[in-house]
Amino acid sequence: MEFLFEVVGEFLLQCLFEALAELGLHSLTEPFRKPPNPWLAALGYTIFGTAAGGLSLLVFPSHFVHGEAMRIANLVITPFAVGGLMSALGAWRARRGHAVLRIDRFAYGYLFALTLALVRFSFAH
After folding, report:
1. 67-102 confidence digits (pLDDT tens)
2. Cβ neighbours of residue 111 under 8 Å, at least 6 residues apart?
3. Which residue blocks in 1-125 are alpha helix, DSSP H?
4. DSSP letters for 76-102
5. What is the phi/psi pair of residue 106, to 5°?
């Protein structure tokens, strides 16, 4: 039961940072209608994910998931789940006629979540 709470906590933390990043990106992209280069966008989401992971360590310096094997499983599974969630959010936004950012697609959401998780995996105690 404790493991379930730990995994859900890690998932919710990544979802929270992803949602905050999306909110900030929506507000920043309004003046710039031209879509960016996909490789530069991937680099940007890698940087944002790394920064979000570092900021999350200031608030939550310890791992939510205890045990090395469980942390590795979390590192593999959670970014896929968050990428899927962001893809679903992007589809929901598109159906309503709202602007869809690159982070609203699986690959970019996954990349952001993966880099956030890698920072937490490497530096949390």
Report:
1. 889 999 989 999 999 999 999 999 999 999 998 888
2. 42, 45, 46, 49, 83
3. 2-29, 38-59, 68-95, 106-123
4. HHHHHHHHHHHHHHHHHHHHTT----G
5. -55, -50
This prediction's pTM: 0.74
Ramachandran angles phi, psi of 33, nearest 5°: -80, -20
Task: Find out whether 120 and 51 touch, Cβ atoms under 8 Å.
Answer: no
How does pLDDT run across 23-72, given as a tens digit for each residue?
767 655 544 456 667 777 788 888 889 999 999 999 999 988 888 899 99
Per the structure block, which two tokens stand in for 56? 């999350």
Would you say 53 and 116 are in contact if contact means Cβ atoms under 8 Å apart?
A: yes
